[in-house]
Design brief:
By secondary structure, the chain is of the alpha/beta class. The protein is built from three helices and five strands, in the order ββββαααβ. Strands 2-1-4-3-5 form a five-stranded mixed beta sheet. About 12% of the residues have low confidence. It holds the Pfam family HET.
Length: 130
């Protein structure tokens, strides 16, 4: 039985470093786990992988800019049927934004990341009006 969110102890997330000595480029993916009950908490894992392993994933991004964390990203609990976990790259989560060398290295391979993604969705912000 899966625990509800109120039963899960609060822990603060810390990033494991990507392997800087690796011969191939690496990235983090979010794996969304399946659940048996629609009332279960959404469970995700952040896993590191290499491009050489040719991972299958979907990518989503947001408008880069002011680094002040004043917005919250929400994932709606829409019904989704899958037999296998879904791998997602969300750059705001998968890239350690506070680790400048890692962030810069990941920015250098963004073209490759989005090219290899099965699907890419980008949030450009609200409509701009002059």
């Amino acid at each position: 039985m899966t625990e509800s969110l109120s039963q899960i102890p609060t822990m603060y997330f810390t990033y494991e470093p990507l392997n800087p000595d690796s011969d191939s480029e690496s990235l983090r993916l979010i794996t969304i786990e399946s659940s048996l009950n629609e009332n279960d908490a959404l469970t995700c894992k952040l896993v590191s992988t290499k491009f050489a392993e040719r991972p299958r994933f979907r990518a989503f991004s947001y408008m880069w800019g002011d680094d002040t964390a004043n917005k919250t990203t929400m994932l709606n609990r829409a019904e989704f049927h899958s037999r296998n976990p879904v791998a997602v790259l969300g750059d705001a989560v998968c890239i350690n934004q506070n680790n400048i060398p890692e962030r810069n290295k990941q920015l250098m391979i963004m073209k490759q990341i989005y090219f290899r993604a099965a699907t890419v969705a980008v949030w450009l912000g609200t409509k701009y009006e002059r």
